[in-house]
Amino acid sequence: GTTDTDPYRLYNLDVFEYELDNPMALYGAIPYVYALSPTRSVGMMWFNAAETWVDVRYSDDKSLMGRVLSSLLSSDDVSSIDTHFMSESGVLDLFLFLGPSPKDTTRQYSNVFGASYLPPMFGIAYHQCRWNYNDQNDVQSIDKNFDKYDI
């Protein structure tokens, strides 16, 4: 969750000297959320081109959204994990996919936005980015580790 940190930032950019374990987005962002129970599934797509943040909170209390999901999923066992989406501007299109199964929810999403493509074989292997080298010593250290770990 994001209780002790900033919300996840959904804004595609390339950040020089990014911080590890930081929720700031680097590349693609698809603001899609699944809610699952043993008998039903629901998907929600937050469709907005503006910079967006998502706050994720875990709680013992049932929020309004938790009660709605309990009703949609026909279950009282819905964990209270709340997501709070915040967009700076723009038109909001909210898509709800009502399943009832995860396969149905995924199919409904694909009918609206298209299916995911399989990445090319070269895109699955190791990739070394050219960004984020602080100095020449940093580059030499990475090069030595390539040899050390046979990369």
The spatial strand order of the largest sheet comes to 1-4-5
* Secondary-structure element pattern, one letter each: EEEEHEEHHH
Q: Specify the biggest β-sheet.
A: 3 strands, antiparallel
State the end-to-end CA separation: 34 Å
Number of strands: 6
- Amount of helix: 25-40%
SSE diagram, text form:
Blueprint: E1 8-10, E2 32-36, E3 41-47, E4 52-58, H1 64-72, E5 81-87, E6 93-97, H2 102-113, H3 121-124, H4 136-148
How would you describe the overall organization of this protein?
By secondary structure, the protein is an alpha+beta fold. Helix content is 25%, strand content 23%. The protein has 4 helices and 6 strands. The strands form 2 sheets. A 3-stranded antiparallel β-sheet has the order 1-4-5, with no helix packed on it. Strand 2 and strand 3 form a beta hairpin. The longest helix is centred in the last third of the chain and has 13 residues, at 136-148. It is elongated and about 60 Å long.
Q: In short, what is this structure?
A:
With 151 residues, the protein is α+β, with helices and mostly antiparallel strands.
Primary descriptors:
151 residues, 25% helix, single chain, elongated
